Amino acid sequence: MPSRTALSFLLPLLLAQPLAASAAQPVVEVYKTATCGCCKQWIKHLEANGFSVKAQDVANPGDYRAKFGIADEHGSCHSAKVQAYAIEGHVPASDIKRMLATRPQAAGLAVPGMPMGSPGMEGAHSDPYEVLLVKKDGTTGVYKRYR
User: In which domain, by residue range, is 60 found?
Assistant: First the structure.
């Protein structure tokens, strides 16, 4: 049986663990169709990188894309929201974390289409792709390039 001193040391650490885990990253709300396998893989990627995910199956994820201020030309198979930012498509968790740390004036991030090699779209080969920073006026800039 642990001593009282050991318990007094361990108890605060044990109680702080759930708080630290939940404070690590905010919840990502994902809107996807029920049958999308790559969406499920992207969710696993987010969870493996410390995010909590609340996924909702919807008839048309594009409705959420529009609601979040992302144009159809930047669309993909799922839309998401994290804090005040939209996330469209297979955006790597590291880019989401960077955006949340730097807090740019933007609607969010997008990876248009479904590029092979992006998180959730892993396979035999990887295509180059870009993560776009979508500004609130709808214009975009390259946030990060993947080769």
Answer: 26-146
Asked, for residue 40, whether it belongs to a domain, the answer is yes
Report angle CA 61, 131, 141 to the nearest 5 degrees: 105
The model's pTM is 0.83
CATH number, residue 135: 3.40.30.10
> Using CA atoms, how far apart are residues 76 and 114, in angstroms rounded to an integer?
6
- Tally the domains of the chain: 1
Note the pLDDT tens digit of each residue in 35-79.
999 999 999 999 999 999 999 999 999 999 999 999 999 999 999
Sequential DSSP letters for the chain: ---HHHHHHHHHHHHHHHHHHHHHSPEEEEEE-TT-HHHHHHHHHHHHTT-EEEEEE-S-HHHHHHHTT--GGG--S-EEEETTEEEEES--HHHHHHHHHH--SSSEEEE-S--TTSTT---S----EEEEEE-TTS-EEEEEEE-
Beta bridge partners of 54: 29
In a domain, 83, yes or no: yes
- pLDDT level of residue 25 (50, 70, 90 thresholds): confident
| Tokens matching residue 95 | 């880019």
